[in-house]
Amino acid sequence: MTHYLILESRDPFDSADWATMQEMIINLRESGHDVTLFLLQNGVLIARKGTSFESHFFNLKALGINILADFFSLQERGIQNMVMDVEKSHLDRLIQLCLTPNTKTIWH
Amino acid sequence: MSPQTLSIAIMDAPYESANSTTALRIIHSALNQGHHVHVFAYEGAVNLTMKAQAPHANAIKGTTVEEENHPTTKDWITALFQLAKAKGVTLKWVNCGLCVDERGAGDWIDGVHRGGPQDFIQSVQASDGVLVIPTR
Amino acid sequence: MKVLNIVETAYRATLEEQDDTILWLSQSFHHADVDISILLRGNAINYLVQGQTPFNLSFGTWQQTQPPALDRDLEMMMAKDIAVYAIANDIQDRALPSDRLIEGVLFIQKSEIAELFEQFDHVWHW
Q1: Which residues of C touch B (CB under 8 A)?
Q2: Interface pTM, i.e. ipTM
């Protein structure tokens, strides 16, 4: 099985393609692969608690998709109350994941 | 932990996208963790290493050149080369030659080399992880 | 080494580059003996439409003599055995004229993407 590391820099408010990429992520997971979704830059905007995307993260987590958010990006945007299913992380972890064997890293 | 190698392709010019800073942060993190990094700078990213970049004052904020301490990406990348040396790992930086030519970006900081797509492929073949950061 | 290059952004600097620079890069990879394939998605799907003829670009007395021809570039790539995939859903969404699409493209549904990705050592989204 492949590990797919999806680096999501876009957000659904600005990018119509965000939703298509989320479908792709679900497709990868449902095909049996490990998937990590790493939010960074404006991709962390929906990690803020209270948006309509909270249930989306709940669903991804229920599928077994690990969701991480770059702490630097969160701080930069003053995001303090986070969606429960998104874990604060950092680029050191991103590097570790990217260098894990059998990983395909895709930036969106 | 023995060093691994990360290949990264970047495309964004400085001061135009959040991608540039994130890419350099990623390179910093990899070097800091003791890994080798091979960078292929394509298109606008070849402007990141231009020697002629200069900081400036900020009249809107009322700061002098010194006070503003405005970053230049060539200084950031110079610092990354120094970090690599301090950590005993390699930072290899290749600017795509044709991209350099069309942008007039050939006067770059020490450590940078001219190359092409085949350099990226050779790096990928020798790497443990690969990251492509596209531009929009 | 098998690589899938995903092209999504369309018409970015194609006039001044006279190429889509990712299609160009992909051909460079092909020259470097990479087993490269292309997946067109999003707006890049419009590259499949035949007869894209930009007006001749000119500024003062400067005239462009080599305008981009993205559909023909893709045809040339397929002639070199570079597989070109495209997301069928994106074509339908954009109402591309089915009688004016270049031939030889391998259409897949969004639901088949995972299966496609698994055929490659690397998947790079440009």
Answers
A1: 1, 8-9, 12-13, 21, 25, 28-29, 31-32, 34, 122, 124-126
A2: 0.96
Contacts (Cβ under 8 Å, ≥6 apart) of A49 = A81, A82, A83, A84
Residues A18/A45, Cβ–Cβ less than 8 Å: no
- Domains in chain C (CATH in brackets) are 2-51+68-125 (3.40.1260.10)
Domains of chain B with CATH codes: 5-133 (3.40.1260.10)
CA distance C56 to chain A (A): 31
The CA distance from C80 to A40, in Å, is 38
b/e per residue A59-72 (b: at least 16 CB within 10 A): ebbeeebbbbbbbb
Distance CA C47, CA B66 (A): 49
- B33-77, pLDDT tens digit by residue? 999 999 999 999 999 999 999 999 999 999 999 999 999 999 999
Query: At residue C88, what is the residue type?
Result: A
> What 3-state class would DSSP assign to C56?
coil
Report helix angle B18-32 to B73-87, nearest 10. 10
Euclidean distance between CA atoms A69 and A46, whole angstroms: 10
